[in-house]
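Quick one:
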Amino acid sequence: MQPVKNSNKPERNSTPEGGRLRTHLFKGAAGSFVLQVGFAGFAFLNAIILARVLGADGYGAFANAMAWVSLLTIPATFGFGILLVRDTAIYRSQEKWELLKGLLRFANRIVFVLSVVLALIAAAVAGWLFSLPAQATMRHTVWIALGLLPLFALYNLREAATRGLEHVIRALLPGMIIRPGLLLAGIVGIYYVWPNQLSAPTAMVVNVCAGVVTLAMGIFFLRKLLPAEAQAARPEYTPSIWLQSAFPMLVYGGAQIILGQTDIVMLGAMRGAEDVGLYAAANRLAFLLVYAIYASEVILAPIISRMYTNGDRARLQNIMSKAVNISFIAILPFGMVLVFFGTYILRIFGDEFMTASTTLAILAVGHLVEVGLGSSALLLGMAGFERIMAMTFSIISLLNIVLNYFLIHVYGINGAAIASIVSLILAKLFFTLYAAKQNQIYTMIFSNILKGFFK
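Output:
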């Protein structure tokens, strides 16, 4: 990371200090958590309705197509999402409005071109990979889903910049509430008006339409919240500095998404849509466990960047410790319910999904461990350690692909769960230890134990 020179100008619109900072964090985290819960609720309802109406095959085709988009969104964004959160916070606090405006314009141009090119290439690959007549639904659903790629990539930039300005609620509202809400309304509307027309491709068309509305709202909020000084400034560009930081973040973000989506994509290629549908249902339930830590991370990101840059390590440690302890205590009971009563919970998707109970238990235990390790990756990303993060996640992602290949062959969807969780925990454990060793900041629960280990 190239450090930004300190400005002699006084900071304006900075996050409040002291007790006001705690109030700001509490309100922001609470609002973020409400949005995360709302998003989880909409996503859960969408998953249940699609699984029940489309069956395992149709839901598997939809989930497979969304995994393609999730994988491609990272290279399309080219690392600018993480960079915008960090550098927007820094440029704002130091009133470098020319650089802020230049970064926004530069990122938009790069991302738009990349997302369109990647969508065209992926369409050709999907046409070849799912070329058989029996795979027509998978092929058509992926083709339609690729229309989301430029929409998601451009929206992610606006969400990141708005978060960097510390307006977290309005940053997250379009993507977490509006888009899944519109998808739910569209699916339910089609089901009651044209029940025979609801299919995986049709559901994906509704999703693309919701994506258009989401991007429009993201544009509106950023324009409204961007300081007048930034809007009036003449853009200043430092592309070499931005690209030096963005590229490692691209590698890191890409490897992170590969780590999160390889299981579904490889299941689709190796076992078919039905196994993808079963796995996706279990994964959807287990992923509810990480929303608590994500709710705190979206509000913490710009604050970590600012505090680390200013050398305020003691308060940063206090914030990180409280975030992980509260998050873990909050989700532990629900995690235990998923482990021991998963069979009954999966039944809400349909009786055929009950066979994924072991997969759900594996994923739930893994995500409990993930939350317990805290937000070490976020800390390192905001502190400028993107290169070590990129290298680590690249190695772990390759390991994840190998593990998925062999374990899916032997254990099916349970093998995919084991491969993904083992890879995820290895990455988070390394980041936690690295942050403790290099920065003396401890992110995991029971951090006093870890602190004593490094004395």
